[in-house]
Specification:
alpha+beta; 6 strands
Length: 225
C-alpha cells in the first residue's frame, strides 16, 4: 500500500507530528528514516518487513547495507540513512571517560562500558586504574568474532606497568547475549589475576557485558538491565 493511500492521520510522519515521535511504532519510525519506498512497496511496507525479519531494532542495527538493499529493496541512500542512524545511536551510547571519573564499584564500570553489549564483534579491553580508582588508560587487547579469545598476557602486564597502574579491570562482551562466563573465561581470569598479583597489581573486576546486562567475577553475580 502506498503511503498516500493510508488515511492522513495514520501516516507515520503525521502521527509523529501530531502525537509526538515517542508514540509511533518501531516500523513507523523506520519508515520516516527510510523516507521513500520502491516500486510496489512503500517505506512503511519495507519497514514492516524489516521488523518481521529482524524482530527488533537491536538485531536490525547489526545488518549491513548490501543485505538491506538486496533482500529488502532499499535504495543505497535509504540503507545508508539507516546505517548512519544506528551509528549515531552507537556513538551516543559510547561514553568518553574523563580523568576525574572514579571507578568504585562494578556497576560504575558497567555504566562506562555498557555500549559493548550492543557490539556484534567480541572485544577484550583492559582498563588501567590508579590507587584512587581513576582511569589512567584503556587498551583493546583483542577484537574479533571467534568464540575463543586469544589473550596476550605479556601485553596486558606490560601496559599496566608502563602507566604505573595500581588496579585494573578486564572487560569483554558476549555478542550472543549470554552474560555467563565460559570455562575458558574462568581459567583466564584466575591466571591473569595471579600473574598480576605477583607484580603488585590487583584485579578490580572482570566484567562480561551483553545486551541483557553483565556478569561480575568480583561479585559472582549476573545483573540484568
Amino acid at each position: 500500500m502506498k503511503i498516500k493511500e493510508i488515511p492522513k492521520k495514520d501516516r507515520p510522519r503525521e502521527k509523529a507530528l501530531t502525537y509526538g515521535i515517542e508514540t509511533i511504532s518501531d516500523a513507523e519510525l523506520l519508515a520516516i528514516i527510510i523516507g521513500s519506498g520502491v516500486k510496489n512497496k512503500s517505506a512503511l511496507d519495507i519497514a514492516n518487513s524489516l521488523i518481521d525479519n529482524y524482530k527488533n531494532l537491536l538485531q536490525l542495527s547489526n545488518s549491513n547495507n548490501a543485505l538491506l538493499m538486496k533482500e529488502f529493496g532499499l535504495s543505497q541512500i535509504s540503507a545508508l540513512k539507516l546505517e548512519a542512524t544506528f551509528e549515531f545511536c552507537h556513538r551516543l551510547n559510547k561514553p568518553k571517560y574523563k580523568d576525574e571519573i572514579c571507578v568504585n564499584t562494578s556497576n560504575d564500570l558497567y555504566e562506562l562500558y555498557r555500549y559493548l553489549g550492543y557490539e556484534n564483534q567480541e572485544l577484550f579491553i583492559v582498563v588501567m586504574l590508579n590507587h584512587k580508582g581513576m582511569i589512567l588508560k584503556e587498551k583493546t587487547i583483542y577484537r574479533g568474532t571467534n568464540n575463543r579469545i586469544e589473550i596476550n598476557l605479556q601485553e596486558i602486564l606490560r601496559e599496566l606497568l608502563m602507566v604505573k597502574a595500581k588496579y585494573f579491570a578486564i572487560i569483554h562482551n558476549h555478542p550472543s547475549g549470554n552474560c555467563f562466563p565460559s570455562k575458558e573465561d574462568e581459567e583466564s581470569t584466575i591466571i591473569i589475576a595471579e600473574k598480576a598479583k605477583f607484580l603488585g597489581l590487583k584485579l578490580f573486576d572482570h566484567l562480561i557485558i551483553c545486551s541483557k546486562g553483565y556478569y561480575s567475577f568480583m561479585n559472582r553475580v549476573s545483573k540484568k538491565i
